[in-house]
Amino acid sequence: MSNKAVIFGATSLIAEHTARLLAAEGWELVLVGRNRQALQAVASHLRLTGYAPVHELLGDASDMDSFPRLVDSARQLLGRFDLALIAWGIFYPSPDARQIREMERINHVATVALAERLGQVFAQQRCGTLAVLSSVAGDVLRADNYSYGSTKAALTADLQGLRQTLAPCGVRVLTIKPGRVETPMTACIPCSRFTVEPAAIAAGICRAIRRKKSVVYLPGYLRVVFFVLRSLPEWLLKRLRF
């Protein structure tokens, strides 16, 4: 019996590379995305290279009323979930008030709403892994992206609570904290030697799922970096540029 996963935000590069790795291992997949053409392109590639069925569902992170229907549709296609990955998110540099509200709505409110709905399904199954893409930006807020970072900090906090809630049911909640990744979302940010390819992040996600991690920093050395940064006093943080 093959493993089964549903991926929300499946046309993002991190999600696409993760789906490729899962498909190569024989996972049956349901891909959820808002752009029909992009979703079909990802699914077609997976069907050529994978060894299990790939299904498509149209869904938009901004339409929270549709989440119960999307989850139920994915469940009908798969029968059960071994894994659910939420990999959507938005970023605006120097955001105005409207953009700040949009980031909060997508990165935090919508993501938690979907995670709660998926958590109910996993609790009924009494098994499975819910993996959610957060960010190291939520660990220590920086001057150049604190509005974005605050949405990820709130998401990470909610996931910690959901993890405690679902643990007695045998359900794992994985918080994924990548650093800067080379994707269209971050194209407006100059690359640095610390920028990581999406394929490397995807490999780290799959490894963390296999190892039943609760929180994973990608690359792994960021766990130490941000442990140190969180330990610094505010007066010193204000002098740093990182």
Which key features would you list for this structure?
alpha/beta; 7-stranded parallel sheet; 8 helices; Rossmann fold; 242 residues
Structural notes for this entry:
It contains 8 helices and 7 strands. It is globular, with a radius of gyration of 17 Å. The chain has a single domain (4-237), classed as NAD(P)-binding Rossmann-like Domain (Rossmann fold, 3-Layer(aba) Sandwich). The longest helix is centred in the middle third of the chain and has 29 residues, at 97-125. Helix content is 48%, strand content 15%. Strand 1, helix 1 and strand 2 (28-33) form a beta-alpha-beta unit. With 242 residues, it is an alpha/beta fold. A 7-stranded parallel sheet has the order 3-2-1-4-5-6-7, sandwiched between helices. The termini are far apart.
Provide a short characterization of the protein structure.
With 242 residues, the chain is of the alpha/beta class.
Based on CA atoms alone, the radius of gyration comes out at 17 Å
The SS-based structural class is: alpha/beta
DSSP summary, beta strand count: 7
Strand content: 5-15%
> What general form does the structure show?
globular
Unreliable spans are none
CATH class: Alpha Beta
Major sheet summary line: 7 strands, parallel
Lateral arrangement of strands in the main beta sheet: 3-2-1-4-5-6-7
- In CATH terms, what is the architecture? 3-Layer(aba) Sandwich
Number of domains: 1
Distance between the termini: 47 Å
Helical amount among residues, as a percent range?
A: 40-55%
The CATH homology group name? NAD(P)-binding Rossmann-like Domain
